[in-house]
Amino acid sequence: MVTGVGVDLSHISTISEVKGFCGNDQIEEALTGCDLVIIPAGIPRKPGMTRDDLFKINAGIVRDLVQSVAKYCPNAILNIISNPVNSTVPIAAEVMKKNDCYDPKKILGVTTLDVMRAKTFVAALRPEDIKDVTMCDVPVVGGHAGTTIIPLLSQVTPKLSKPFEGEELTALVTRIQNAGTEVVDAKAGAGSATLSMALAAENMATSCLRAMSGEKGIVECAYVASEVIPELAFFASKCELGENGVEKVLGCGEMDSYEKVQVSNAVAELKSSIDKGVEFANA
């Protein structure tokens, strides 16, 4: 099936060459020479499941795939989508460390979908200020699960004529944090976010490729090795991308008191998820 999809896509008239590979016996051929590797593999969420419920299965998948990356393309930039991202990124880092090819700039947890959702929901509530959602920016920091997803609504651009406050603020933040569950429930057991996630993955991959080709000033939110929060080895925030991955972690900027409380409240859960990933990789 995978090989067939590759053949199907290869008939599209673009400058890109498309090939399909399937199975461990083709992993070397698939990865050798790669500069960017995107890992979306794993089982999707179903109603009632949290991203953490996926850990036991997806953690092993990510570990094994990153082991192959370390063997066949150790200098590649990694875009990790497989949930729970808060744990799978630390797993990837530990695997690369064990293979003596760890570069913290080259492992990025893809949180782009959180940013896309935040932009979409904000634009719907403030159409008088945001007439083109593609021109809107809403930084999202923290992690990629539940309350660790922290939209910085005080930093929305273009600047809003009426800031989000009170119940409206709480409802909007809650919707952004639970948007993945909204999709899972709507699909009623048929899967999780795939179409929106595919576009988010493409956006992130394209940004990485543009930066790798030498284009300057490309900024994306991503879950990366960071010193933004001293207690946490990984944290999502704005990052400037470059030829070798994350050129500079830009941090959270000026947060309001509400956002600072959210970040503080997320630290314990993020640390637990990071530790869980590290322990799994080293077990």
UniProtKB/TrEMBL annotation:
<feature type="binding site">
    <location>
        <position position="197"/>
    </location>
    <ligand>
        <name>NAD(+)</name>
    </ligand>
</feature>
<protein>
    <recommendedName>
        <fullName>Malate dehydrogenase</fullName>
        <ecNumber>1.1.1.37</ecNumber>
    </recommendedName>
</protein>
<keyword id="KW-0560">Oxidoreductase</keyword>
<dbReference type="GO" id="GO:0030060">
    <property type="term" value="F:L-malate dehydrogenase (NAD+) activity"/>
</dbReference>
<keyword id="KW-0816">Tricarboxylic acid cycle</keyword>
<dbReference type="InterPro" id="IPR010097">
    <property type="entry name" value="Malate_DH_type1"/>
</dbReference>
<feature type="binding site">
    <location>
        <position position="117"/>
    </location>
    <ligand>
        <name>substrate</name>
    </ligand>
</feature>
<comment type="subunit">
    <text>Homodimer.</text>
</comment>
<feature type="binding site">
    <location>
        <begin position="81"/>
        <end position="83"/>
    </location>
    <ligand>
        <name>NAD(+)</name>
    </ligand>
</feature>
<dbReference type="Pfam" id="PF00056">
    <property type="entry name" value="Ldh_1_N"/>
</dbReference>
<dbReference type="InterPro" id="IPR022383">
    <property type="entry name" value="Lactate/malate_DH_C"/>
</dbReference>
<dbReference type="Pfam" id="PF02866">
    <property type="entry name" value="Ldh_1_C"/>
</dbReference>
<dbReference type="GO" id="GO:0006108">
    <property type="term" value="P:malate metabolic process"/>
</dbReference>
<feature type="binding site">
    <location>
        <position position="58"/>
    </location>
    <ligand>
        <name>NAD(+)</name>
    </ligand>
</feature>
<dbReference type="InterPro" id="IPR001557">
    <property type="entry name" value="L-lactate/malate_DH"/>
</dbReference>
<dbReference type="GO" id="GO:0006097">
    <property type="term" value="P:glyoxylate cycle"/>
</dbReference>
<dbReference type="GO" id="GO:0006099">
    <property type="term" value="P:tricarboxylic acid cycle"/>
</dbReference>
<dbReference type="InterPro" id="IPR015955">
    <property type="entry name" value="Lactate_DH/Glyco_Ohase_4_C"/>
</dbReference>
<feature type="binding site">
    <location>
        <position position="45"/>
    </location>
    <ligand>
        <name>substrate</name>
    </ligand>
</feature>
<dbReference type="InterPro" id="IPR001236">
    <property type="entry name" value="Lactate/malate_DH_N"/>
</dbReference>
<keyword id="KW-0329">Glyoxylate bypass</keyword>
<feature type="domain" description="Lactate/malate dehydrogenase C-terminal">
    <location>
        <begin position="111"/>
        <end position="280"/>
    </location>
</feature>
<keyword id="KW-0520">NAD</keyword>
<comment type="similarity">
    <text>Belongs to the LDH/MDH superfamily. MDH type 1 family.</text>
</comment>
<feature type="binding site">
    <location>
        <position position="83"/>
    </location>
    <ligand>
        <name>substrate</name>
    </ligand>
</feature>
<feature type="binding site">
    <location>
        <position position="51"/>
    </location>
    <ligand>
        <name>substrate</name>
    </ligand>
</feature>
<feature type="active site" description="Proton acceptor">
    <location>
        <position position="144"/>
    </location>
</feature>
<feature type="domain" description="Lactate/malate dehydrogenase N-terminal">
    <location>
        <begin position="2"/>
        <end position="109"/>
    </location>
</feature>
<dbReference type="InterPro" id="IPR036291">
    <property type="entry name" value="NAD(P)-bd_dom_sf"/>
</dbReference>
<dbReference type="GO" id="GO:0009507">
    <property type="term" value="C:chloroplast"/>
</dbReference>
<dbReference type="InterPro" id="IPR001252">
    <property type="entry name" value="Malate_DH_AS"/>
</dbReference>
<keyword id="KW-0576">Peroxisome</keyword>
<dbReference type="GO" id="GO:0005777">
    <property type="term" value="C:peroxisome"/>
</dbReference>
